[in-house]
From TrEMBL:
The lineage of its organism: Bacteria, Bacillati, Actinomycetota, Actinomycetes, Nakamurellales. The active site is at S7 (nucleophile), H231. This is SGNH/GDSL hydrolase family protein. SUPFAM superfamilies: SGNH hydrolase. Signal peptide: none annotated. The keyword Hydrolase applies. The keyword Hydrolase applies.
Length: 254
């Protein structure tokens, strides 16, 4: 099994840590899923990844470490490939982080490392096109692999918001719009490329911020740990792994 993707697959803040510069956990959903399926895992996920850094652009992390494109590490005999990436292509969590820190501490140095959110042209198409390129590149590298697109856990339900940051109605509308666009991009890519989709966004509805059992962390104001804000917690990662295991455990791979 090979895991490709960004922080929603890598698992920043979740201990124990597998790779600190990549902010990759040993309790992320790829590792949990591989254990459930009895697979040997090649985890190539890196927090902050985009579809481009998965395919052909080296990635430089916040600490200055450089990682080659994730596909460079893919074994050609992979049986199963999970893909969770695309949110950074449209600045989904970045927008939430930017506005959170502006409200929490507008003078914080953290803001210097966050790109202000701006208007996007065809965000659904941007996600779908990027994911499509990833899928086609995976097929070239590992032609026998079964590919599963795994979209993002719900961060914001329709009726709740952060308990830590008093976002405006306009800001919440923007975040929910990008969340919806991200899920739509995954659906389009799955249809266009004829690959499996695990719609985690729909399955985790009701477990966003402010719910009785959230699957994501709320805003974390500690600059050393803030990268985990709005990202999967342990319950969220276990939920994704369980959903995938239930679908895949009875199937032959690839």
């Amino acid at each position: 099994m090979v895991a490709l993707g960004s922080s929603f697959a890598a698992g920043p803040l979740l201990r124990p840590v597998a790779d600190r510069p990549a902010m990759r956990s040993m309790r992320n959903y790829p590792r949990l899923l591989a254990g459930r399926l009895g697979c040997e895992l090649v985890d190539l996920t890196v927090s902050g990844a985009t579809t481009k850094t998965v395919i052909d652009v080296p990635q430089v992390t916040m600490t200055g470490e450089q990682y080659p494109p994730q596909l460079a590490g893919m074994p050609p005999d992979a049986d199963l490939v999970t893909i969770t990436v695309g949110g950074n292509d449209i600045g989904f969590i970045g927008a939430m982080m930017y506005h959170a820190w502006r409200r929490h501490d507008a003078k914080s140095l953290v803001l210097q490392g966050i790109e202000p959110p701006g208007a996007l042209e065809d965000p659904i198409g941007r996600v779908a096109e990027g994911l499509g390129r990833v899928v086609r590149a995976v097929r070239e590298h590992a032609p026998g692999a079964r590919i599963v697109l795994v979209d993002y856990l719900t961060v914001l339900d329709d009726d709740r918001g952060s308990a830590e940051i008093d976002y405006s109605a306009t800001e919440l509308a923007l975040f929910r719009q990008r969340q919806t666009q991200l899920a739509a991009g995954f659906r389009r890519a799955a249809d266009d490329e004829a690959v499996d989709l695990m719609p985690i966004s729909a399955a985790s509805s009701g477990h966003g911020l402010g719910s009785a059992e959230p699957f994501v962390f709320d805003f974390i104001p500690d600059p050393l740990r803030t990268t985990g804000s709005f990202h999967p917690n342990e319950r969220g990662m276990a939920f994704v792994a369980d959903q995938l295991a239930d679908r895949l455990s009875g199937d032959r791979l690839p």
